[in-house]
């Protein structure tokens, strides 16, 4: 996914941007990022299925991540109430409004489901916990499903949420699982830098097993 903020090789250097367009986007700041899957704002035919992160340098403090396999989130929601899954698989469950630049549409409105099944049978998820620049389907079923998912992700004692911080030389390879990022603070000696590559294809080991995260 050679997005507009990536370098020429399609890889994005995630660090605090000192100036320019990147300063307008949260991944290039030191602010925290709520639970999400990458590329939730992409068109449905350009969804992110695989992702790689490589840590060059950590911040002086903060910058921890939480991870949850989206397949686990699906199972927890389904077991609690199958209607949650029906609501979140609706084709108009979540809408990302258009992004405007100088009065022009830089990215068109994107409407689609939260959960969908890829033609190869694998589960895919597009989601963000942000509360601005997002529109949920306005019905009771969707609101209940979103609230249930938020509750699952907010569970500090969940055995399904992995927590940690990437140190220099460490990496993450995953099939675009749910994740967040804590705010962080750089110092003169430690300025956080991670390289991120996103892919339209899933990461696979040649088996049909679920694709969680490996760090």
Q: How would you characterize this protein structure?
A:
With 215 residues, the chain is α+β, with helices and mostly antiparallel strands. It has a single domain, classed as Clavaminate synthase-like (Double-stranded beta-helix, 4-Layer Sandwich), CATH 3.60.130. Helices cover 15% and strands 29% of the residues. It has a four-stranded antiparallel β-sheet with strand order 1-17-3-14, with no helix packed on it. A four-stranded antiparallel β-sheet has the order 2-15-5-13. A three-stranded antiparallel β-sheet has the order 9-6-12, with no helix packed on it. Strand 7 and strand 8 form a beta hairpin. Helix 1 (70-80) crosses helix 2 and helix 2 (82-88) crosses helix 3 (140-153). The chain is globular, with a radius of gyration of 17 Å. The two termini are 21 Å apart. The relative contact order is 0.29. The model is unreliable at 208-215 (pLDDT under 50).
Write down how many β-strands occur, each being a DSSP E stretch of 2 or more residues: 17
Biggest sheet descriptor:
4 strands, antiparallel
CATH H-level superfamily = Clavaminate synthase-like
- Structural class by SSE content: alpha+beta
| Gross CATH architecture | 4-Layer Sandwich
Tell me the strand order in the biggest sheet.
Answer: 1-17-3-14
| Proportion of beta-strand residues | 25-35%
How many distinct domains? 1
Rg over CA atoms, rounded to whole Å, is 17 Å
CATH topology: Double-stranded beta-helix
């Amino acid at each position: 996914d050679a997005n507009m903020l990536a370098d020429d090789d399609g890889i994005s250097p995630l660090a605090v941007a000192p100036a320019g367009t990147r300063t307008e986007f949260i991944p290039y700041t030191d602010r925290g990022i709520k639970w999400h899957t990458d590329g939730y704002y992409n068109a449905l035919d350009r969804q992110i299925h695989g992702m790689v992160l490589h840590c060059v340098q950590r911040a002086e403090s903060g910058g921890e991540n939480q991870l949850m396999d989206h397949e686990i989130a699906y199972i927890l929601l389904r077991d609690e109430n199958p209607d949650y899954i029906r609501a979140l698989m609706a084709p108009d469950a979540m809408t990302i409004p258009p992004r405007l630049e100088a009065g022009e549409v830089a990215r068109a409105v994107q409407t689609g489901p939260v959960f969908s099944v890829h033609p190869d049978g694998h589960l895919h998820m597009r989601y963000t916990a942000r509360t601005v620049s997002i529109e949920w389907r306005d019905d009771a079923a969707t609101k209940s499903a979103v609230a249930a998912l938020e509750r699952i992700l907010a569970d500090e004692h969940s055995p399904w949420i992995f927590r940690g911080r990437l140190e220099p030389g460490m990496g993450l390879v995953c099939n675009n699982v749910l994740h967040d990022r804590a705010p962080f603070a750089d110092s003169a000696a430690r300025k956080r830098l991670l390289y991120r590559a996103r892919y339209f294809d899933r990461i696979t080991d040649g088996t049909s097993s679920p694709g969680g995260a490996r760090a």
